Amino acid sequence: MPQGKPAEGAMDHSQMNHGEMGQAEASSSMDHGQMDHSQMNHGETPSQDRQGMDHSAMQMGSDDDIPLLPPPPEAGSGPARAAVAIWGEEAMNEARRELVRETDGGMRFWFQGDRLEYRAREGKDGYLWDIQGYYGGDIDKFWFKSEGEGSFGEPIEGAEVQALWSRAIAPFFDFQAGVRQDLTGPERTHAVIGIQGIAPYQFEVDAAAFVSTKGDVTARFEGELDQRITQRLILQPRAEIALSAQDIPELGIGAGLDRIEAGLRLRYEFAREFAPYVGVSQEWRIGDSADFARAAGEDPSVTNYVVGVRFWF
Predict the structure, then answer these.
(1) What pTM was computed for the model?
(2) What is the chain's Cα-based Rg?
(3) Which of 98, 93, 74, 73 is nearest to 83 (CA)?
């Protein structure tokens, strides 16, 4: 087809004026730029839509628009103890008693075996117990503690019990005062004053000073920290330091820093209330206390490999 001349019947676009084309169409078409959307009512039927929709009249609901009305009369029309029909009287009575125990700040009992362990070491293997608990309310409690250790086949090396009044002095700390009775060796009764609680970063702290009926002044500081590896597997570093204001030869205690114990225990909580553990504990007798230990034929430095259980109820 010759390019200079259009074919017969074909439209010559070169003669079309696109700028002026479709004036009639423009007059009949919808000019969206000139539409007033504020008059359109999109929420109504097509016949109603022609009347226009006023978006400015629309309001979104808010909490301030919710009316505060009293409960309907039928809300209290049921039986006072309708849950009994579903759960039974016995179950509901127990639930009510538990509610009172948990919310009224009443008296409660708690007991924990913190360390009950077998100790494998050079020479004769040994054992150790460390238990505590309380009975009381949120502010005032009666605390009891007992700990001791020994070697199998020999008399108990050391054992004691404490009875303490405990008073909450801060959200996480109690002040404690009472008596301690030694159950082995020369008889000693001690007055006790101390604090117990949770320090920043979740360190559990127990510090106490003792004054015996013989006038001996000693002190003990204990600290431990639970490091969760998983929800059930917990690594617990623990340290204990014992001090004395004077030599007590009959007890093998020297003035100043008497003893240091550091340990690491890994426990697995089958339940929060029951967790066996394994670990290692190192004890050092320091200064004059080490000299007393050597004079008695004992090693002032002992390594214990421990297997035990921790529980509470």
Answers:
(1) 0.68
(2) 41
(3) 93
* Cα(246)–Cα(260) distance, integer angstroms: 17
* Distance, CA of 199 to CA of 192 (rounded, Å): 21
Structure confidence at residue 99 as a pLDDT band (50, 70, 90): confident
Q: ∠ CA 207-114-299 to the nearest 5 degrees?
A: 75
Tokens representing 122 are 């050079």
For 96, 133, 191, the CA distances from 103, given in Å and listed in that order, are: 11, 21, 35
The pLDDT tens digits of the residues spanning 243-258 come to: 999 999 999 999 999 9
Q: What percent of the chain has pLDDT over 90?
A: 62
pLDDT of residue 97: 84
Distance from C-alpha of 274 to C-alpha of 226, rounded to nearest angstrom: 15
Beta strands in the chain (DSSP E): 108-120, 126-136, 140-151, 158-170, 173-182, 189-199, 203-212, 217-225, 227-228, 233-244, 256-268, 274-285, 301-312
Q: How far apart are CA 210 and CA 220, in angstroms?
A: 8
* Rounded Cα distance, 129 and 159, in Å: 9
**Pairing between strand 227-228 and 217-225?**
unpaired
Residue 6 CA to its chain's centroid (Å): 90
Tell me: pLDDT of 301 over 60. Answer: yes
Q: Which two tokens stand for residue 190?
A: 């001690």
Highest-pLDDT range among 24-28, 42-46, 122-126: 122-126
Which residues on adjacent β-strands are paired with residue 150?
Answer: 127
Nearest to 36 by CA among 14, 20, 54: 54
**Rounded distance between C-alpha atoms, residue 108 and residue 99, angstroms:** 13
Closest CA to 260 of 245, 240, 277, 276: 240
At 82 the pLDDT is: 80
pLDDT of 104 reads 66
**SS3 category, 24:** helix
